[in-house]
Amino acid sequence: MNPPVRAADHRAGIWYGVEQGIIDVLGSDHAPHTLEEKQKTYPASPSGMTGVQTLVPLMLDHVNAGRLSLQRFVDLTSAGPARLFNIACKGRIAAGYDADFTVVDLKRSETITNKWIASRAGWTPYDGVRVQGWPVGTFVRGKQVMWQGEVTTPSLGEPVRFLETLKP
To answer: Which stretches make up the Amidohydrolase-related domain (predicted)?
Structure first.
């Protein structure tokens, strides 16, 4: 992450932004740097960490803890990005939309482990963290692509389409 979120007041500021509606999008890139790469002295150490795989379980844990509503989590990760970036047919489950969604089990408790991380990095700073709330399945354009941790369909990626914008 750049800049890194280290101090408690930085984390508190982010949560304040979420609670006040200042923050529109919650997302994660995926910087699959190995521990060897990360242990280099700054500025030779690369920024970022694995994050795509842990985003949903960590945020569902916050939902279960009452820090974030499920509706707000969905808005921050789906509808918010579609609004902000003018993305067509994404961000909601409705007629005419692409039917991209994740099925979650809010009661399922799991422990995040380095072994679970699928990227070349092979590690996560959340190794050993127990969370309540877990992604069970993922659908892309209405087709199941992941179920119970197993990829069920090869990649279905397509270019994102954007809404027409008004020209001045």
So the answer is: 8-145
Burial 134-147 (b: 16+ CB within 10 A, else e): bbebbbbeeeebbe
Task: Supply the pTM of this predicted model.
Answer: 0.91
In a domain, 75, yes or no: yes
Provide the CATH number for the domain around residue 59: 3.20.20.140
pLDDT digits (tens), the chain, 168 positions = 677 778 999 999 999 999 999 999 998 878 899 999 999 998 899 988 889 999 999 999 999 999 999 999 999 999 999 999 999 999 999 999 999 999 999 999 999 999 999 989 999 999 999 999 999 999 999 999 999 999 999 877 899 999 987 666
From 29, 98, 105, 127, the catalytic residue: 29
Q: Is there a domain that residue 113 lies in?
A: yes
Spatial contact of 23 and 76, defined as CB atoms under 8 Å apart: yes
